[in-house]
Amino acid sequence: MNVECLTLPLANRLAQEYQQGNASALQFFAYHPYEKKAYQERLEWLRGRTDYNRDQLAEGLYTFNKKIGTHQQALNQIELLRRPDTFVIIGGQQAGILTGPLYTIHKAVHLIQTAKRLSAELDVNVVPVFWIAGEDHDIDEIDHVYWLADRETRLHKERMNLTKKGRVSASSLPLDEEACEQFLTQFFHGHPETEETAAIRELLKSTASSSESVSEWFARLMAHLFGKHGLILVESSLPFVRELESPIFQNVIEQNEQVADLLLKAADRLTTAGYPLQLQIEEHQANLFLYEGKDRLLLERHGDRFVNRRASYSRAELSKLAKEHPERFSSNVVTRGLMQEHLFPSLAFIGGPGEIAYWAYYREVFELFGMRMPIVLPRMSITLMEGAQERLLEGFGLTVEDVLTRFGKWKEAWLEQQEPHPLQRQFAEARASIEATYRPLVEEVVRLDHGLRHLADKNTELLLAQVAFLEERLVRSLQQRDDVAYRRIARIEASLLPEGGLQERKLSFFPFANKYGLSLVDRLVEAPFAHDGTHQIFYV
């Protein structure tokens, strides 16, 4: 068994209580995520719907997935979608450089494992679908990766130069050849050459050279890693997706006030239940974006008109535009779930803690459009534990749970037990000397001019602060130069708790692949993970 389960607290209280099955949180959702009967109920509800355009959906998915070079197994899964007894497990992520943080990989693994498990349990075809949110225009969130540097003692952030103008989205942002080459040069410069490096380099370069956009590069990498396991990829801006979404765009425009009202009421109920609000809900928000040229601009509703920073439309004009040119529209965080539910017969949506907190607003919005919110299944959270890190923990008598739940307190106690630095007495004497010599002078200054009291005291503080600063720099220098234990602690922290958070939120997949090979993905897919909300430790 190479997997260990831990129960970790979540920072988001709503997601925490939902995961625990607390009735206070469950009231905002349609199903309990861990009850088998919920999946039977959901399946029966889906069987009663006949409005899915399965053939057009399958044709569009097949064309896209074939283009990005996916495996035949994924194409076979797409063909299953034509059949009325095939259902979907869906989740997604932004199109991050080199697939972004590790939790993107973990979400794909969870989709694949859940689809396989439910296929067996429910005796139906369940296929995994990964929704690439390629239209997000927060490029600063996707243009970088992190890896470990300085003998794995600190986190290094490498940003790819993605030149953009205005509010262009990742799906329409060209992949600049020179910028990509410079970024990959820096990536490989920051990692040791291993037996796996040549294969990694070939994959990253070949997929980049075949991609026209940042989003397509992401899609090609995900297809290479997970296509063989049947993962279906869909990108939010694809023309066939827009065409299929057109009726929902029109409905959202026609019932825009009702959507806003339901969201405001949901916010009130969340507040009454004692949960902090995760979405800023405003009465005038239209919950849609509209493309003006290449810029994806937020729509707002003022009276019976819909406006963005460049144009204004009547409701009739906007509805007509949604019917004739749906490619100009884009969903926001609220309406994205409606689009997914309209396109796919979804048994469950897999989301992280933040997504769960968002979806707590949507139950009545789904019902407004004749839909029912799918099961919202908390995303599996994983830490990759390397042998080297295991040995470091053993050396300090630490467990993984110690690091992930109370490392700060442990580190503070450990530091207090260490020997003082060799000049500690001299620095203490210097501080005492300043106090003894300088303080009487300060009092004399104040006696002559009482108005100088604040300045004189501040001057004393600055002198003492300079001594403290020099002492701190000495301690840091000695730690880095001489103390192996400090470096080992830094390695533990950088690898397992980078910047005080979970590994999966900072580190990315390809540095691990450079050590353990691309087959690490296959090992994760086959690992015996528990899907019960616990945190999974995967021993690499």
Automatic annotation (TrEMBL):
Every Bacillithiol biosynthesis BshC N-terminal Rossmann-like domain range: 1-380
One Pfam family hit: Rossmann-like_BshC
Xref: InterPro entries: Bacillithiol_biosynth_BshC, CC_BshC, Rossmann-like_BshC
Enzyme Commission number(s) of this protein: 6.-.-.-
**Bacillithiol biosynthesis BshC C-terminal coiled-coil domain location, by residue?**
382-539
Supply the alphabetized keyword list.
Ligase
EC top class, as a word: ligase
Q: Under the GO molecular function aspect, what terms does this record hold?
A: ligase activity
Q: Does the keyword tRNA-binding apply?
A: no
Q: Which family does it belong to?
A: Belongs to the BshC family.
So what does this one do?
A: Involved in bacillithiol (BSH) biosynthesis. May catalyze the last step of the pathway, the addition of cysteine to glucosamine malate (GlcN-Mal) to generate BSH.
Protein's name according to its UniProt entry: Putative cysteine ligase BshC
Designated gene of the protein = bshC
